[in-house]
Design goal:
HAD-like_sf; single chain; Pur_nucleotidase; 5-stranded antiparallel β-sheet; Rossmann fold; about 550 residues; alpha+beta; 5'-nucleotidase activity; globular; metal-binding; 3 domains; metal ion binding
Length: about 550
């Protein structure tokens, strides 16, 4: 797995620019490294952008599996949290407040919940909620729990090991007993769940009767679903998109670049047409002199096919028998189709509707499945499609595992994380040295104990060795304490509670493991595609055996 750790100072492939926070590869390569105990766990290399231009370290595209864009005939996008990046301080707060109201007014929770507030920076993606115990967990790629909280109270090492480390069979940490927090939209409900756990512990008589931790999580999910069903969230966003969605002026140039290169482009979103049109207008429309936004359909020029109401991940199953309807953009009317082919409407003898549908540069649909999409785009092989999304399970896993599409995952948190990794490279080097020092002392202690136990020495020699052993054990305790303090300090630079997104201790986090398994490419925002050639060949490094990382040149 590639993830930025630092840069090999002696390797001629790299030069650095500290002030700009960029990396410039010579014509050999650019690189992306993942932090590890030796600082060189993963190394992914690709040719530098055309013209040798510098790309900000937080905007690079990182490669897990080789991908030659010349073989890609169609590039597709999710909308929510991919093209449209929502602002956590406004949008997630809106979702949180809406969920609270549903809990109180629809599900019988106490009125005092309405006074609660939301901290959009507390939770991170990649966490796992233990519904039965009311715990929030962060684990590594091997599913070992490294950080655990009960509500907002940190579990002791003994409690953590006693609960999750003493079983004969490894827990899968999957549904139905656990919930995975793998989307940015899930952060608000995770925070609310932690608040409810603390509230129940401190006020056992105030929660609805029979509501254990698992039941409370179920109620939170039901409240979130109610917010979606009554359209509360989307109505608020539609009134003032700028308040809830980040503007990205690079999105339109990216679409133009892809279309000028001869590729088809498509949009597949679970949102329905009315909301999709508002959001895409905001992202793509040019502003008037006073900055106001007029709602039109100009953004459709950047796509060949738009599919709304797709019901992903079910959309990716070809056996899914969902009907596909054509959407008439002006009225929002749904028109029957024959698997995407326009049909004359019953009772109409005019060929006008059929003629208009066949001559549109972009056609808009609702529903259907991936087979309809392949037919509409004349895709012969699934490997000719690159799909860009934000949700590992809803977008990336199914499209990659079931279809064989090439995939790019959007991880907005990555921009800050890679910049921090670069800024903290000296601290992380010191951490590595402290760990090596601790390991060296522990090895010496082990050998000394072995000698004392199994070899014969004179009394004076044994006394000296015993004295030396005591000194070494004192050094080990000091080295261990210094290492633990430095590790905690580094951990908290990324996040005061959960640390690095892509790491758990010295191991890749569970989230990073999923990124590695299912995303061919990953990057901080979708418009980073515009910084690279549309015909770029993305290449990972050679595959190294684990032992080889320890002998890479420093």
């Amino acid at each position: 797995m590639s993830h930025l750790a630092g840069f090999n100072q002696s390797n001629s492939h790299y030069s650095k620019d500290d002030s700009a926070g960029t990396i410039l590869g010579d014509k050999a390569s650019q690189s992306h490294l993942m932090a590890s105990s030796n600082g060189v766990e993963g190394l992914h290399v690709w040719s530098s952008p055309e013209g040798g231009c510098k790309i900000d370290i937080g905007k690079q595209i990182f490669c897990n599996r080789s991908l030659n864009m010349k073989n890609i005939l169609a590039v597709g996008f999710d909308m929510d949290y991919t093209l449209a990046q929502y602002k956590p301080e406004t949008f997630e707060s809106l979702a949180y407040e809406g969920t609270i109201r549903k809990l109180v007014y629809d599900l019988g929770y106490p009125q005092e919940l309405l006074e609660w507030t939301f901290d959009p920076k507390y939770m991170v993606r990649g966490l796992v909620l233990d519904k039965k115990r009311g715990n929030i967990l962060k684990m590594d790629r091997h599913k070992y729990v490294k950080v655990a909280y009960h509500g907002f109270r940190e579990l002791s090492k003994e409690d953590k090991v006693g609960t999750y480390g003493n079983t004969l069979i490894r827990d899968s940490f999957d549904e139905p007993d656990y919930a995975l927090i793998d989307t940015l939209f899930s952060l608000a409900e995770a925070y609310l769940f932690a608040q409810l756990v603390d509230y129940k512990d401190n006020n056992p008589g105030k929660v609805p009767e029979g509501a254990d931790y698992s039941h409370m999580y179920k109620d939170v999910r039901a409240a979130v679903d109610l917010c979606h069903r009554d359209g509360t969230l989307k109505q608020m966003v539609a009134k003032d998109p700028k308040r809830y969605i980040n503007e990205d002026t690079s999105i339109v140039p990216m679409f133009k670049m892809l279309r000028d290169s001869g590729r088809s482009t498509f949009l597949v979103t679970n949102s329905l047409w009315d909301y999709t049109n508002i959001v895409m207008n905001f992202l793509c429309a040019s502003r008037t002199l006073d900055g106001s936004l007029s709602c039109n359909f100009d953004w459709l020029q950047y796509f060949d096919v738009v599919i709304t109401g797709s019901a992903k991940p079910g959309f990716f199953q070809e056996e899914n028998r969902a009907n596909i309807f054509e959407v008439e953009p002006e009225s929002g009317m749904l028109l029957n189709t024959d698997n995407g082919t326009p049909m004359p409407q019953v009772g109409s003898t005019s060929p006008e509707v059929l003629f208009k549908a066949l001559n549109k540069s972009c056609r808009v649909f609702q529903g259907g499945n991936v087979a309809h999409l392949h037919k509409l785009l004349s895709i012969e092989s699934s490997s000719q499609v690159l799909y860009v999304g934000d949700h590992i399970y809803g977008d990336i896993l199914r499209s990659k595992k079931v279809l064989g599409w090439r995939t790019m995952l959007v991880v907005p948190e990555l921009e800050r994380e890679v910049k921090l990794l670069w800024e903290l490279r000296d601290m992380r080097k010191q951490l590595r040295l402290l760990r090596n020092e601790r390991d060296l002392v522990e090895d010496q202690i082990h050998h000394l104990k072995w000698s004392l136990k199994f070899e014969s020495f004179r009394d004076d020699e044994k006394q000296k060795m015993t004295s030396a052993l005591g000194e070494l054990e004192s050094q080990r305790d000091q080295a261990r304490l210094a290492h633990q303090q430095a590790q905690r300090e580094c951990h908290q630079k990324f996040h005061k509670i959960w640390g690095q997104l892509m790491k758990t201790g010295y191991q890749n986090s569970r989230f990073a493991h999923q990124v590695e398994r299912f995303a061919c490419l990953y990057t901080s925002q979708v418009s980073n595609l515009s910084l690279y050639s549309p015909d770029k060949y993305y290449r990972p490094s050679e595959d190294f055996m684990p032992h080889e990382f320890h002998i890479l040149p420093l």
